[in-house]
Amino acid sequence: MPEHHDRYIVITGGPGSGKSTLVEHLGAQGFATRPEAGRAIIRDQVAISGRALPWVDPELFAELMLSWDLRSHRTAPGPGPVVFDRGLVDTIGYLRMLGRPVPPHLLTAAETFRYHRRVFAAPPWPEIYEHDSERKQSLEEAERTYEAVVRAYADHGYDVVALPRAPVEERAAFVAGAAPLS
Length: 182
Fold this sequence. Notes:
The protein has 182 residues and is of the alpha/beta class.
């Protein structure tokens, strides 16, 4: 039976679109948050010379993201709203974008561990996009990632709402006005 959590709010989108900045801002306003899996996994794998990196072994990287996101879902604090920097369905979009098969257990996880039906997607934003040691994708890849994750959430029954390209305070007010954050 699916675990529905209407108080679990997902912020998704492509890399470099301001997702993490928005989640951090909401956290500073007192909302519980869950960090993105990808960046932490990349940092850890680089530190240990591991191979679960998107540019070395994308499938293994996806498995670690799945594990991280399952744990984030299960250990989310309560009873109020929790804002997630990406969710389980992002990994489905990631694998589809790469043209890789999505394992059945990942599909089961996405249907079992649910979030609020309204998911917020940060669209590609060339003016703020930057490369760094963990973000190696081109802007074109970031745009493809956005399209893939939006499609994956829609395919899994979520209503995807595009965030405005606006300062973080306006984005936070937009999310707060359209999600159960009170």
